[in-house]
Amino acid sequence: MVFNFMQKRLEKTIRKVQSKGMLNKENIEEILKEVRLILLESDVNLKVANDFIDSIEKKAIGKVVDNDRTSSQEILKIIYDELVNILGKEVKKWNFQARSVVMMVGLQGSGKTTTVAKLANNLFKKEKKYKKPLLVGLDIYRPAAIDQLEILAKKIDVDFYSDREEKDVAKLAQNALKFADQNNHDLIILDTAGRLQTDQKLMEELQVIKKIFLPTNIIFVADGFSGQEILNVAEEFNNKLKLSSIIVTKMDSNTKGGSIFSLAYSLKVPISYLGTGEKIANLEIFYPNRIASRILGLGDIETLTEKAQELGDEKAQEKMFRKMMAGKFDLDDLLVSMEQLSKMGNLGAITKLLPSFGKLRNISEEKINSAQTKLEIYKILINSMTQRERKNPRLLKHQKRKERILKGSGRTAQEYNDLLRQFERMQKQIMQLAKVLKAGKMPDLNKLGNGFF
């Protein structure tokens, strides 16, 4: 997952800081050397890494000089603040206008075409800023890119325009603009051509498109797997076109994440979104403070809460909570919970949003994958049960019911027995949790997750 490389190394350094309690000048210099090395290993640009460390050092050493020694928590706060600063300080607010034209640019293979559809889906369906979007295919060199964009437009139920016969970019752009005018489209997103590397012809074509459409936003799409060379590429696009913001793609994979630091800090162009998966919905608003929190192992409870809220129906969630507190949680409730969990993403992505304490945050990738598989098996088994059986799990002890469910689900007796054992254990945990909460006490986070992990 994104920032794993940097986060795992930084967490070791942070634990070392916390174990010392109080720090002196020598301790701080030693820690900052480690942090600098971690940044460089994570593909952060050398100048960016040096500026970052210098800024922390000035603030941290100043506190030590004043007090002879300083709290480790103060140093962590300084590191956090500088991470937020280097990532762009504030959230990039969408430049909403009555009619917006968005020009997407970037190298071939960066995920630009898919990101066009993701952005349209986000602004149209999720944020509901526009009523009639149009996706325009302007990549005359790759017919497959136009085909892909047309398929994606149908998938998210928005209009599409291109002309596979037209090989003049200027004429294609002019015709697309006429089409948008005639059909009163209020959001126009342009999918432009890319190259394996920048060249003069590409830049001239992009400048022609810009002159025709007069875009309100020009967004550079950067591949999260790119190393430090992406900074030079982005600088060239910015010099020629003046970028409005950046979207970094493929951030659900094992990217080092250093390119984000380099782009945000060096270009002074804000990052607006992160692509976090292959699905259309996998586009997250970029929050510098939340990313800094994740990197330092402090979790991202705000994003986790938003993911839960996106599932909707607060009354249903409240009803579920009341049932849990009353000790009436049944298999139907478990099925609903698992389906909601699936909508939020895989377990690995969810646990990364938790602070680095307790059992849930520190489980291995192997155990996460095993738990993910269990959840899918349990859903199949529960879907093979009758409504009465889900409401009254004691009926599931009968052999004939068991045989019928196994035949209908295609699962094994061991998996069936495992589900019942885990459910009983979960019921007990929920009842114990309810007692603790009703008593006004804080539950033990280390006990959460027992059973699945």
UniProtKB/TrEMBL annotation:
GO terms for biological process: SRP-dependent cotranslational protein targeting to membrane. It is found in: Cytoplasm. InterPro entries: AAA+_ATPase, P-loop_NTPase, Signal_recog_part_SRP54_M_sf, Signal_recog_particl_SRP54_hlx, Signal_recog_particle_SRP54_M, SRP, SRP/SRP_N, SRP54. Its EC number is 3.6.5.4. SMART domains: AAA, SRP54, SRP54_N. Keywords: Cytoplasm, GTP-binding, Hydrolase, Nucleotide-binding, Ribonucleoprotein, RNA-binding, Signal recognition particle. GO terms for cellular component: signal recognition particle. NCBIfam families: ffh (TIGR00959). This is signal-recognition-particle GTPase. It comes from Candidatus Hepatoplasma crinochetorum.
